[in-house]
């Protein structure tokens, strides 16, 4: 008896340890970078900062809430995908952007503050605080009249060329100042012994606007023969060297032929498992029907167990399951009726509505990111009408018209785009969740480029 008591105590301690471990795992979050600071903003300017949230341990679905604490500057902040968004189940990394849009009438002074990042479990049954405690992004926004020219060069690239073709230099630059800037570059080509063979100046690389990141391209013609060469590229802004890279490139007689092998994705899921997964609803109904039939068989067997053989041989008794064969028929019939009942119940509530089909070419309202779309043909707009006679548009749980409708949008309702796929927009909904809207029901797009 004492041994059993000890075993139960150990089991209880183990369960408590696992529960506490699960609660601690919920707190495994981090954010990078850890600040939002810009000390040379000007009235009317913009500043964008991208953050990366990462987590480990428990990967359940959670709701992320962003709470700015910049006082009167709170209204300047625009969040993408929004102030609240979902960290999907299984995701380890999530990014969001904060764009500061300074009004033209803003006062020249410092606006210190911070941005708090909180996480609330989507499942109300999960208790406790995750990153709401202690996770704060420090901030300091300062307005000035001074013109600041600041450019960060993040990447320099040169590809191999075919003889007679121009050498193309690609420079990725991020404007960290508050005025438009135009850099220049000096190119030096050397042999394997570092002897200078050619020098070139690239002065028309283009303009990088305030708070913009872009790839600048410059090119020049070389008279060098076939071979491999060193190429030194130094980028300048107003005679100040920003970055110098030493690369290697080749001049070839003809472009190399790259053998392309198309690798088709093979579904390794067993056929039986895939079939069960695709038809899981019907599989559950069948299992329930089988269990119901087995229960009926057991109850009928118990009913006739203590009856005499003479009574079991009666025709009416046989019809009621006194024999194993009729008992099986009754059980199978009852199971079939259960399956039919479940199937019929799934059809309750299905309505057939007449829809009006119109041809329109439409786009999404309310997105703050730049969306570049190819020319599309005229789209079919499928509307519905609610009980008050108002036109409504369905928002689906997935990018599939057969999926569940999770929200009904009203005429002229505006959404913020989170993601775009072929034929669909993923949008933020008023309740903080996201859903999928078919491009065919979109009225207009408010395009705003986010750099």
Automatic annotation (TrEMBL):
<keyword id="KW-0472">Membrane</keyword>
<keyword id="KW-1133">Transmembrane helix</keyword>
<feature type="transmembrane region" description="Helical">
    <location>
        <begin position="282"/>
        <end position="300"/>
    </location>
</feature>
<feature type="transmembrane region" description="Helical">
    <location>
        <begin position="329"/>
        <end position="350"/>
    </location>
</feature>
<protein>
    <submittedName>
        <fullName>SH3 domain-containing protein</fullName>
    </submittedName>
</protein>
<feature type="domain" description="SH3b">
    <location>
        <begin position="383"/>
        <end position="446"/>
    </location>
</feature>
<keyword id="KW-0732">Signal</keyword>
<dbReference type="InterPro" id="IPR003646">
    <property type="entry name" value="SH3-like_bac-type"/>
</dbReference>
<dbReference type="Pfam" id="PF08239">
    <property type="entry name" value="SH3_3"/>
</dbReference>
<keyword id="KW-0812">Transmembrane</keyword>
<feature type="signal peptide">
    <location>
        <begin position="1"/>
        <end position="27"/>
    </location>
</feature>
């Amino acid at each position: 008896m004492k041994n059993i008591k000890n075993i139960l105590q150990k089991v209880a301690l183990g369960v408590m340890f696992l529960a506490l471990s699960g609660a601690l795992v919920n707190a495994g979050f981090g954010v990078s970078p850890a600040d939002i600071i810009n000390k040379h903003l000007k009235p009317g300017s913009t500043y964008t900062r991208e953050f990366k949230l990462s987590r480990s341990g428990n990967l359940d679905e959670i709701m992320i809430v962003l709470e700015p604490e910049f006082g009167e500057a709170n209204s300047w902040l625009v969040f993408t995908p929004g102030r609240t968004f979902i960290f999907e189940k299984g995701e380890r990394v999530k990014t969001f952007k904060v764009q500061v849009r300074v009004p033209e009438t803003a006062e020249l002074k410092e606006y210190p503050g911070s941005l708090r990042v909180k996480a609330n479990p989507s499942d109300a049954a999960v208790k406790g605080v995750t990153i709401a405690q202690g996770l704060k992004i420090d901030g300091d926004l300062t307005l000035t009249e001074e013109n600041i020219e600041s450019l960060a060069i993040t990447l320099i690239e040169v590809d191999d060329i075919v003889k007679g073709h121009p050498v193309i230099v690609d420079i990725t630059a991020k404007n960290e100042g508050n005025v438009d800037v135009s850099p220049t570059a000096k190119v030096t080509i050397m042999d394997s012994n570092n002897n200078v063979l050619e020098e070139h100046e690239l002065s028309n690389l283009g303009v990088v606007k305030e708070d913009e990141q872009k790839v600048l391209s410059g090119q020049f013609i070389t008279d060098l023969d076939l071979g491999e060469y060193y190429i030194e590229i130094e980028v300048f802004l107003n005679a100040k060297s920003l970055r110098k890279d030493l690369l290697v490139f080749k001049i070839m007689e003809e472009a190399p032929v790259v053998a392309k092998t198309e690798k088709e994705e093979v579904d390794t899921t067993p056929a039986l498992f895939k079939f069960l997964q695709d038809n899981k609803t019907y599989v559950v109904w069948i299992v329930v029907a089988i269990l119901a039939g087995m229960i009926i068989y057991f109850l009928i067997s118990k009913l006739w167990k203590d009856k005499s053989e003479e009574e079991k041989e009666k025709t009416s008794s046989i019809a009621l399951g006194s024999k194993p064969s009729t008992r099986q028929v009754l059980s199978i019939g009852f199971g079939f009726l259960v399956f039919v009942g479940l199937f019929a119940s799934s059809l309750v509530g299905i309505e057939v509505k007449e829809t009006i089909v119109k041809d329109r070419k439409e786009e999404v309202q309310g997105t703050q990111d730049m969306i570049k779309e190819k020319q599309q043909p005229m789209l079919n707009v499928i509307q519905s009408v609610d009980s008050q006679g108002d036109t409504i548009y369905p928002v689906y749980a997935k990018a599939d018209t057969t999926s569940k409708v999770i929200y009904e949008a009203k005429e002229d309702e505006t959404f913020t785009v989170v993601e775009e796929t072929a034929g669909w927009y993923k949008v933020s909904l008023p309740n903080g969740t996201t859903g999928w809207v078919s491009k065919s029901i979109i009225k207009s797009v408010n395009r705003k480029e986010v750099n």
